[in-house]
Amino acid sequence: MRKWALAGILYVTIVIFGFQAYDKWIGEDQTTAAHGHGEKMEMGENKSNQEMSRGHQEENESAQGHEMASGNHESSEVNVFVQNDKSEIKIFLKDKASNPIDELEVNHEKELHLIIVDEQLEKYYHVHPERTGKGEFTIKNNLPDGFYKAFIDIKPKDFAYVVEPVPFIVGNPTDTSHGHELIPDKQFIKTVDGETVTLNVSSFKAGEPVTLSFDLDQTNLTPYLGAMGHVVVLDEFGKKFLHVHPSNDQEPIFETTFDKPGIYKIWAEFKQNETVRAFPFVIEITE
């Protein structure tokens, strides 16, 4: 009897110990597996939410891009934004912290010169928006439907600035072609509204000082924006911008430099008989 009692006690002890060990080891493994699965699901949900949030952000940025275009250069401390609708074009000048830039030097009688060209570099507009707020300028939008580039020529006080093209769209243009090949002029003689202007170029080599002089009827030539003319130059891609003023106050002579070889379009503006006309020329600069 005593042996049977001891055997029974030993058996019960083994069974109890076995259940405790199973509960400790196997139960912990199942709990760990469940926690690991939960962490994976949570990370997956966070990733999905982040992707959805990023997608919404990109959609919002894309939508904002249709309303407002910007032209910013890495070395420029000024961010320029162009917002347009059917009735007006607005220009906003901001620093890198999105604060309005309002201190501008007067440059040839104006704080801001707005040069607009179409993608084909055929249409040309030189206008002067009015100040409508801090770092904000507005002008009526009389442009026909099409693809355009704006060049905002300003001299901010205490800020470095580089003129960059700001592309924007007016209306619903049917012609979706962007740009075309510029053909250099064989003769530099242009006639607009009965007035004839001849361009003389001192050098066609890149990196050399170039003098652009113009032969025209100076008997009816009067100053325009404080100068005897203005010259705007764009490269064939509509990216490189130059705004050149006369070298003296009496003659339509301009001095500049073309840094790189290529084809350039020149608009020479003169005020004759109280009318401002732009005479277009296309030249090729070689190495």
Short note summarizing the structure:
The chain is an alpha+beta fold and 287 residues long. It contains 1 helix and 18 strands.
Structural overview:
With 287 residues, this protein is of the alpha+beta class. It has 3 domains: 1-67; 72-170, Sandwich (Immunoglobulin-like), CATH 2.60.40.1930; 189-285, Immunoglobulins (Immunoglobulin-like), CATH 2.60.40. Helices cover 23% and strands 37% of the residues. It has a 5-stranded antiparallel β-sheet. Strands 13, 14, 15, 17 and 18 form a 5-stranded antiparallel β-sheet that branches. Strands 5-4-8-9 form a 4-stranded antiparallel β-sheet, with no helix packed on it. The longest helix is centred in the N-terminal third of the chain and has 66 residues, at 2-67. The protein is globular, with a radius of gyration of 35 Å. It starts with a helix and ends with a strand.
Highlighted features:
5-stranded antiparallel β-sheet, 18 strands, 287 residues, 23% helix, Immunoglobulin-like, 3 domains
Strand order of the largest sheet: 1-2-3-7-6
User: How are helices and strands ordered from N to C?
Assistant: HEEEEEEEEEEEEEEEEEE
| Mean pLDDT over the full residue set | 81
The CATH superfamily of the largest domain appears as Macroglobulin (MG2) domain
CATH arch. level architecture of the largest domain: Sandwich
Low-confidence stretches: 1-67
Q: Rg to the nearest angstrom?
A: 35 Å
What structural class do helix, strand and pairing data support?
alpha+beta
Euclidean distance between termini CA atoms:
118 Å
* Shape type: globular
CATH topology of the largest domain: Immunoglobulin-like
- Specify the CATH class of the largest domain: Mainly Beta
Number of strands: 18
